[in-house]
Amino acid sequence: MNRLIITLIFAASAILLNGQSILGTWKTIDDEDNVEKSEVLLYEEGGVLYGKVIKLLEGATGTHCSNCEGDKKDAPITGMVIMYDMMKDGTTYDGGKILDPASGKEYSCKVELEGVDKLKVRGYIGYSWLGRTQYWYRVQ
Questions:
Q1: 3 state SS of 86
Q2: CB under 8 Å to 43, separation ≥6 — which residues?
Q3: Are the C-beta atoms of residues 48 and 93 closer than 8 Å to each other?
Q4: Fewest 10 Å CB contacts: which of 13, 43, 65, 134?
Q5: SS3 5
Q6: What is the mean pLDDT of residues 59-78?
Q7: What is the pLDDT of residues 75-90, one digit of tens each?
């Protein structure tokens, strides 16, 4: 009986998470200093996921991307698309890039829901195990 209950709980959790969308506004938490930095809007265009900074929070270390290159050099971080070309792969999004405005570096990226209001964001170079993970939290 206990196994049946546990199995039903896991099945219900999986169904709820699979039906949950990652679209919406998320609060970013820096994985190095555990400080809230920004709010990012995740949205889809043509089946591709993008993330745009819509608000800098008190913990943000800068307002412009001074270390970025190209057209993002010295551009305001608010309004900047920092996640792009993410394609849905089952319950995750992968294959795109994410920009770290503090360093100006771009990384391969993978995102997936860890709970209804918790998003796992993994930035990496080459292989997923060569990277960093941040957890973002849904803004209500």
A1: strand
A2: 23, 49, 50, 51, 52
A3: no
A4: 13
A5: helix
A6: 95
A7: 999 999 999 999 999 8
Position 112, amino acid = E
Asked if 53 contacts 39 with a C-beta cutoff of 8 angstroms, the reply is yes
Decide: residue 40, CB within 10 A, 0-12 exposed, 13-18 middle, 19+ buried: buried
117/7 Cα distance (integer angstroms): 22
Q: pTM for the complete prediction?
A: 0.83
Contact 60, 87 (CB under 8 A): no
Question: How crowded is the C-beta side of 33, counted as CA atoms within 13 Å?
Answer: 6
Give, for 138, the enclosing helix (H) or strand (E).
Answer: strand 131-138
Q: Which domains are seen in the chain, by residue range?
A: 22-138 (2.40.128.520)
- Write down the pLDDT at residue 19: 53
